[in-house]
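Per reviewer request, we include the raw input and output of the structure prediction for the construct analysed in the revised manuscript.
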Amino acid sequence: MTDTVTAPRAETRKSRLRRGEAAAGWIFTAPVIIILGVFLLIPVLMALWVSFSDWTGRGSPLSGNVGFVGLDNYAAVTTGGGLAERDFGISIRNNAWYVLLVVPLQTILSLFLAVLVSRAILRGRGFFRTAFYFPSMTSSVAITVLWLFLFSANGVVNEILSWVGVAGPNWFNDPRGIVHVGLSAVGVQEGPEFLTAGEFLGVSPWEWMAGPSVAMFAFILMAVFTTSGTFMLLFVAALQNVGSELGEAGMMDGATGWQRFRLITLPQLRPTLFTVLTLGLIGCWQVFDQIYTGTQGGPAKTTVTPAYLSYDSAFIGQDWGEGAAIAFILFLIIIVFTILQRFVLRDRPVSKRRAAQYQPKGMKP
């Protein structure tokens, strides 16, 4: 009888304790939730409404004078067939090449630097880690101004190129795509008809294949230079958690250094690799301050990005609905690429054929 009475009392005390912990958790997190709701969630929802409205930027977007236009703002930049669609297509083209080059280059360079500064035989590892990370701590505006000086027509970069007999371009004033520059060097000046006839988002396939402009390529080099140090630290932390036992076992089995890194170390870095690729992908699609400080979309709109185009449409062109629509299309692009990236880097089960290779002879898998 005593045991029967004691058990419900113990359960009651546990449930009260859990309710108290839950209430304390909500109390401590409430200020942050309120701040995020007021300064993040509500503005995002208002911007979403603006993308479906004809708000002119005057007065409240929630006033009765603002009308609902549905998907008109989204259609204007995707299927409108005018300048807005072409500008959006050019911005997507520019940013796609930016992402395609920056993300792999900064990931490979940051991993290489992490392996380099993690070697026990390297003296002054702390100094090199600080030196490689230092560009990431510098203001992007300051780095952009420095880059404008280094890559000017008479700048340091062109001066160094002249030492080896190369005439450097006028970097931030050259709208030519680097792929087209390479093709023109072998005599290809114009694209075939099947690449110049059709259009997607107002841009022909031949223009999509132009590659980043010379000006955008300078921004690509700057992005790799400034972000590799940050991702290097992530890889350094991950390498410190990689056990040495598997590497030693591989060494005893006769695996070379590259084989140990590719087959043993790199698979253990998959979570960090996913983080680096995701952060790099998001940062590259959101590039804005370098463009605003450096070229403001020039020359010939070859450095315009969707983030800058959203700002230009809303704050300069006063087309707030179109600017908000571009911002949310960019948000969807980032979400889609992040999901795709997670699918590609997911943990896959070992196939039966490969599992059979590791089974002792005479045993069924």
